[in-house]
Amino acid sequence: MAEQPATPAEAGREQCVTEALAKLDLPAKIALLSGATTWSLPAEPEIGLRPLVMSDGPAGVRGERWAPEDTAVQLPNASALAATWDPELVRTAGRLLAQEARRKGVHLLLAPTINLHRTPRAGRHFECYSEDPLLTAEIGIGLVRGVQDGGVGATIKHFVANDSETDRFTVDVQIDHRTLREIYLAPFEAIIRYASPWAVMSAYNAVNGTTMTENAALNAVLREEWGFSGVIVSDWHAARDTVRDALAGMDVAMPGPDTVYGDKLLAAVKEGVVPEPQIDRMATRVLRLAARTGALEGASVEAPYDGVVDGHALSNELAARSMVLLRNHVEPGGGPTLPLNPKGLRRVAVLGAAAAHPRTGGGGSARVFPPYRISPLQGLRDALPPGVEVSYAEGSNPRLSLPVIEGAVRAELYDDDGSLLSGADLSQASTNGLPELLGDVEVEDVRAVELSGTVDVAEPGRHVFEVRGQGRLTLIVNGKERFSGTLTLADPENPGAALLAPARKRVEMHLEPGTVSFALVKTDIDPANLEFALFSLAYSEPLPDPQRQLDEAEDLAKNADVAIVVVGTSEDVESEGFDRESLALPGTQDELVRRVASVNPRTIVVLNCGAPVLTPWREDVSGILLGWFGGQEMGAAVADVLLGVREPTGRLPTTWPDREDDAPVLATRPNYGELVYEEGVFVGYRAWERAGRTPAYCFGHGLGYTEWRYDSVAAGPGLDDTELARVRVRITNVGTRPGRDVVQVYLSAPDRADGPDRPRFWLAGFASVTAEPGDVAQADIVLPRRAAEVWTDEGWRLPPGSYQILAGASYRDIRLAAALPIT
Ligand code: BGC
């Protein structure tokens, strides 16, 4: 397909782009293809081009600064958004992200992440939507439309098969063509077709032997087959080869200023290895992006949505809408445990480190700094009537790493003679924002960077500091040197390792109560590698005895009417940059739940994680609510949901295993550099069903506060050749509360010995509907033709035969069936 303007406005922008390009000579065109800084492309005042700024999503817009001083509205993590099964609601999330992007001068959002939940151990599972390509595509379409409604570009990433983190820079993912098309490329194809994102990010990994930034064949699928007219931007540091990258059509190498393009690309063009028309095509696409996003003067920006989204209210709504009620025990002779009736409560015990300090967002590039975080403890205290006594005990703290020191911290840069070059006030003991600290100072002149401040010590005892970073670091506490040494990164090849997985050194010392001063100094600054200067200091009071903590929690639980235990993963086990080694809750958290449940029959567990965890105690507790990394409003939404002010309407976008080894696809470690997707198209529930295993909680599962009866399903023909069928499902709210249900439609293929190997049934469409008690809700669902097609050596084919449409409330709760003959 050619890159044809579709509307008069687009035609106008194309005109501007053509004129702008014509004014540029070769070096100026090549300059457009590399970052000028970590987050922006260079300005070109000659043609009215402003720096085009990019920033990470997908749960908030961090902006150009990586610092808590620059806050952003924080939404729940990506899998949580997918758990709403509501693309229109997610579109509103996209509009909010666009609004935040504009506020921060960002033109291109580096989101959404549409890789798949292939294995529950994947470190960035929380940042992806689902194990199912169709759900991923629909949610991705919602987000991209929303972002671009606001005149900001969306970037679908990471193209393609970047589904785990181990050796992510070098891993060669081996996938057969059918699996690639039907599973991993499918969300990219659908989003490009239905939402026209303005950028695609190419992944670090290789697919079938070719690094994705250099993968001309797959890029041709994007451009020629799917008609993608946007920019292909490299993942950060992913571009490695000037000529191969340029010939593959990888338009922009990030981050800058040093990339494989620039002078090297100029030389390659002059030598005739890269044809100049290729540079024109690449520069055209960059200028088109600038025109679309308002970075090119004279080009009109289309922002169809000009309303204002209340970010805090939206964050609250998304948190509640995404929460999945996994279990709600019906007490013998009584009703379900949840929602709790506050009138019946006198004493509530809230337990767990995450109850007071939840993780409200995932770690790594998805990280943003929210203006505030409402913890479940705070949310419950605010929501419960004044007469209810809320007590709290930490019970168990799963964090291996200590919290970074927060408060007034001074950062100073020194030269060779020890003279002060510059200084800045920070709000935490971390140099993540070093490039900004530099200001006008030349990095070559910096010989030492120092962070200094104080901590207040309340109790005498063995206090702990944790030095994090790499290279030579010296820690001085109360004027005395306590550590001086060299820290080495475990995996220096991993891009961003200094930020994502710094080396750590714990230093314990006896301290007496009072104000204690600290200084952490780094003396080996490498001007060529600013990441080298990333370091931070964490601190903790004497660490409590784990058994004593468990006893304390049990005591509180014993005397309470209800015990609410918040448990989850920590940044040490679930984050970007590495995969998980185990799905078990870290530390003594399982023991905490067991001990609390053994003394309180009304124990409710709230899970604070972005991806599946094991719940070995699940039959022993009354309720389990998956609260995800619920964003800045998480605690308020948890309270609303537990107390029945709102219904939890999330449904699992991914299967949750009972035992870890049951998960059909688990491993993330490449063998001799290769990670073979040997399961083919059998990923997620497709694989569970084939293996005949029963998960703890299946795909699509989630309880609400009302009951639904599935009345009828009927299928009619599609309206054009992109549609397979139109399905109408009618359901009745037979409970006593207004409610929302997610009607799921699966497709089962004719059982033909000569047909392709397919799952027994798979998701083909869904709709989120509401109804008052006694009322009927009607779900009208379009099944795309792709949902039934199979990729063959001859391209897409629709195997004919008697298909069946299955409608239900989850993969394992099918209520109705209808025939769908396909000729
Ligand atoms: C991540 C990308 C991210 C980029 C910039 C990379 O390490 O893989 O998703 O957009 O960093 O932060």
Give a concise summary.
The protein is an alpha/beta fold. 24% of the residues lie in helices and 26% in strands.
Key terms:
823 residues, alpha/beta, six-stranded antiparallel sheet, 20 helices, globular, binds beta-D-glucopyranose
Indicate the topology.
Elements: H1 8-22, H2 26-31, E1 54-56, H3 78-83, H4 87-103, E2 108-110, H5 133-149, E3 153-159, E4 172-174, H6 177-184, H7 186-195, E5 199-202, E6 206-207, E7 210-211, H8 216-225, E8 231-234, H9 242-247, H10 263-270, H11 276-293, H12 311-322, E9 324-328, E10 347-351, H13 353-356, H14 376-383, E11 389-393, E12 406-414, E13 420-428, H15 434-438, E14 448-457, E15 461-469, E16 471-477, E17 480-487, H16 497-500, E18 503-511, E19 514-522, E20 536-540, H17 546-558, E21 562-568, H18 589-599, E22 603-608, E23 623-626, H19 634-642, E24 674-676, H20 685-691, E25 708-717, E26 723-733, E27 739-748, E28 762-771, E29 776-784, E30 790-792, E31 795-797, E32 801-810, E33 813-822
Parallel strand pairs: 1-2, 2-3, 3-5, 4-6, 4-24, 5-8, 10-11, 10-21, 21-22, 22-23
Antiparallel strand pairs: 6-7, 9-23, 12-13, 12-14, 14-19, 15-18, 15-20, 16-17, 16-19, 25-26, 26-29, 27-28, 27-32, 30-31, 32-33
The protein binds beta-D-glucopyranose.
